[in-house]
Amino acid sequence: MNISQQSNPGIPLERSLGMPPGGPKCIPLTLDFSAATSYSVDYTNMQQRNFFDMVQSVFVDNSLSNQILTITVGAFGQVTKVPAGVQGYFPLLVPNPIKLDIACSDPVLCQVILINFPVPGFTWK
After folding, report:
1. Exposed, middle or buried: residue 22 (CB in 10 Å: 0-12, 13-18, 19+)?
2. pTM of this prediction?
3. Is-contact 88 80, C-beta < 8 A?
4. How does residue 16 score in pLDDT terms, banded at 50, 70 and 90?
5. Residue 79: pLDDT above 50?
6. Tell me, what's the pLDDT at 85?
7. CA 85 → CA 1, 46, 106, 118, 121, distances in Å?
8. E strand or H helix at 37, and its extent?
9. Domain spans in the chain, listed from the N-terminal domain onward
10. What does DSSP say about strands 38-42 and 99-103: parallel, antiparallel, or unpaired?
11. What is the C-alpha separation between 67 and 50, in angstroms, rounded?
């Protein structure tokens, strides 16, 4: 299942020091793993139109799941595994254009927020 680029143009956030030139933004995604076990995210078009310039971090709420959620950055083969029952911020190495795959075998809703500025990684239950 693909995520519609047109429905998620990026959300402007409050600007602070050290942020990207276009300002801090995030893209919230609610992924329904009862509908599909994996989602391909391709924001090439939105990036080319200057709506969202990069991904440096991600927030994941996998607290309702009994399974690991994986985020795979295809260009590098980086795989981030979010444990079952956990929420957290995770740094990502995502080259431009923005392309990644998100998968979980538990049929639950998970919130994933792509963030264009660095957030130190930490998790909690």
Report:
1. middle
2. 0.84
3. no
4. very low
5. yes
6. 97
7. 24, 32, 11, 24, 16
8. none
9. 11-124
10. antiparallel
11. 35
Q: Which two tokens stand for residue 59?
A: 């927030």
What is the pLDDT, as a whole number, of residue 15? 41
Query: CA 118 → CA 2, 57, 113, distances in Å?
Result: 26, 6, 13
CA atoms within 13 A on the CB side of 15: 4
* CA dist., res. 66 & res. 47, Å (int): 34
pLDDT score for 47: 81
Question: Tokens in use for 8?
Answer: 């998620």
Q: Which structure tokens are listed for 33?
A: 């793993």
Q: Which amino acid is at 117?
A: F
Q: What is the DSSP string of 43-92?
A: -HHHHHTTS-----EEEEEETT-SS-EEEEETTTTEEEEEPTTEEEEEE-
Superfamily of domain 11-124: Jelly Rolls (2.60.120.10)
Residue 120 DSSP class = -
SS3 of residue 104 by DSSP = coil
